[in-house]
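Morning!

As promised:
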Amino acid sequence: MDTYRKSPFVKISVLVFGGLPLLLWILGGFPERSFLKESLSFVTMLSFFFMIGMFFFSRANAVVVKDLKMHRTKKIHKAIGTTCVSIMLLHPLFLVLPRFFEAGVSPDDAFVTIVTTFHTGIVLGMLAWILLLTLGMMALMRNQLPMTYKTWRRWHGILAVVFIAAAAWHAIDLGRHSSLAMSSLIILLTAVGVRLFLKHTITSKPQKPRIDR
Amino acid sequence: MTIERIDGCIGCGTCVKTCPTDVIRRDPKTGKAVIMYPADCQICHLCRMYCPVGAITISPEKSIPVVVSWG
Ligand code: SF4
Ligand code: SF4
């Protein structure tokens, strides 16, 4: 645990993927809502940023592999993945959850209205949700799938890139806290993360197996 | 100001149909709701109550409590 805590990369990542969005959220000047709504929004936003962060906590990033070694990088990747994928898969329900405690449209009617609205942001959100579910299933069932690890890894990366592109667009279009600054941060981090993956995929050569110590 | 702002609109159009005084319209380009005639707002809260994503904020200072039926 100490290795993670002492790692400069982990510290910087917490600041970039947690601290910066939080700062922009506070400075955004958005109206205060109930504690439940704000908490759900906050958890969703942080999960999304840490999902972008997963591109940085992967073998595509030589800096993190050097700092933490591959096995620890993989552990962080898995931990962020399990937590954030679960939250992101549930987040459409977070929108209607407060409806249980408020007058007006019922939670189920609100949910039906959301999923039947044909708007670019909603369609992209649904596409991203399906891709995320596929990504999650693919990660959970890695050993059962009829493909080599390298093929799996490539597909996992490609799906992740398509997912993050759709999800980023969805978040910028419909995100309640997507101000100009927040949108710019999403675009910047997504672009750098995707570039890392593409660079690694295009330039990587077959390597001999290596034992990390 | 009465109806204050709209954040995170998905463009379902419910508030446009719900508002009794046509304060809200849909932007033809984005399809999202926009506050067109804020001066006509009666602070009835209907738009806020029926927005599926809770995108509408109504000025709390000018709000009157919403009557909810318990029956
Ligand atoms: S509070 Fe009532 S009058 Fe005002 S915009 Fe909403 S629905 Fe219209
Ligand atoms: S009801 Fe809400 S989501 Fe639907 S158009 Fe109005 S503000 Fe947008």
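DSSP finds two helices and four strands in chain B.

Hope this helps with the figure draft.
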